[in-house]
Amino acid sequence: MEKRQELFAGKAKSVYATDDPDRLILHFRNDTSAFDGRRVESLERKGRVNNRFNAFIMGKLQEAGIPTHFESLLSDTECVVKNLEMIPVECVVRNIAAGSLVKTLGVEEGQELTPPTFQLFLKNDALHDPMINESLAETFGWATPDQLAEMKALTFRVNEVLKALFAEGGMLLVDYKLEFGLFHGQIVLGDEFSPDGCRLWDAETREKLDKDRFRQGLGNVIESYEEVGRRIGVDFG
Known about the structure:
- It contains six helices and 13 strands.
- The protein is α+β, with helices and mostly antiparallel strands.
- α1 (46-63) packs parallel to α6 (221-232).
- Belongs to the SAICAR synthetase family.
- It is an enzyme of class 6 (ligase).
């Protein structure tokens, strides 16, 4: 497969075209950002760790029958993915109160949410990813009702699979975000799943093992990502 021009560079990943119009190359960089890009640093090993972590998780989801864009690892920091028509709506499930939910509603961090909450956010950095609902998504053409229903169902299916996986490693899946796209008309999970886009706590100590370590200046960010991976069986090479 021939790697061609860069199509897009996000906060932590870059996307490249290939000689196959249905396939892209996703490059995980060492860049780490927080607070809408106001804080940016480069963390050694991050690209490799997140690339391999994501490959492992996508494999587990595919085994459970969840369609994803992931196809294969290409190198320590790159993988081959399907070329999706991305839907600009993020799906967020929260199993435990943390982050913006605590700040917005004034609830106590660590409160178990039964049932888990489901939220939609418009993927728009300039607007700081505002929360939206199904009606807004339909009205403005961001997604159809059928697409939203499928995205919600898949997001909760991911929750079932990954809550159990992380529990086996002695961890709590606090919350996470997912992005979806269309591949020849089918709703498919896109983007990535890594400690950058979810919250993971040690089940006993409630120690934070995710990107909150970067946001809150707790240190040992990549070491924590690697610890999470080791607990669930990720091979970092």
